[in-house]
Amino acid sequence: MKVLRVLNNNVVLARDEKGQEVILTGRGIGFSSGQGKRVDPELIKKVFVPADGRDPDHLAEALALISEETLQTVITALHEAGIEDRGSTRPTLAVAVADHISGALERAARGIVIDYPLRAEVQTLYATEYAQAQRLLRAINERVTPALDPSEATALALHLVNAGFVSGDLSFTYTMTGVIQQMLAVVRERYGLDVSDASMSAARFITHVRYLFVRIQQHRQLKGQESTIGKGIRQHYPDATRTAQQLATIVELRLGQQLSDDEISYLALHVARMTMDAHGTAT
Q1: pLDDT digits (tens, 9 = 90+) for 177-225
Q2: Which of 109, 130, 163 delimits the end of a domain?
Q3: Which CATH number is 14's domain given?
Q4: d(Cα 44, Cα 33) in Å, to the nearest integer?
Q5: Distance, C-alpha 10 to centroid of its chain
Q6: Into how many domains does the chain fold?
Q7: What is the largest CA-CA distance in the chain?
Q8: In 3D, which of 96, 82, 79, 102 has the Cα closest to residue 148?
Q9: Full domain range(s) for residue 112
């Protein structure tokens, strides 16, 4: 591999044998390297391969701001928590978590604890990621001093949720969280429904909406091939369809994206399931 850019003593941007840009980390890897020089394989600790259109330069610059100790702590903790394999070459999650942990450690050293306002929403909407985040935080706290406050699990969970999106922009995850809450509020108010009474169907709805957000980001909404099924859903659940159209309006207002007829139909199906589970009647 040949060096394209040296970020600091421990991070370089290089081109591998396949011609793709990769980020290499390792203690002292950039010390004696220069543009065009071959990288000493013995110095390579970790190879990251940017994907999904991520900018290698931006990721490399972010890595250069993180200490090698913090990065390795996070990589090990992600593995121990069962979130990401130690040999993973995806940089996005490790970089985002390590960057957050760097800041959290600085705050902890100064005795600052952040009360994250989305804690209740994260625990409810992203229960799986919150449980993973708690395991991740325990694994990190076994390796750092001072130990981080349990409240950091909320922020870590949001980073785990965010890892599924192309943009890598945490603000999108905050927006998604608000939109899901707004959607559930509409269903709750329209049908007098306590969402907790329909926990399984509500969980399916939340999962569906999360994947809907991914499809919106990737410009791959359900359209055309599911239209026959979509028409059937709209005919069978007219009231739920009207509710789904209201939910689609929320998405359009918040994200600037109009939903396809089939996406609206599948939202209607999930709304119908929630109301049927709660009341035992068809919608």
Answers
A1: 999 999 999 998 998 877 664 467 788 888 889 889 888 887 888 776 5
A2: 163
A3: 2.30.24.10
A4: 12
A5: 27
A6: 3
A7: 71
A8: 102
A9: 66-163
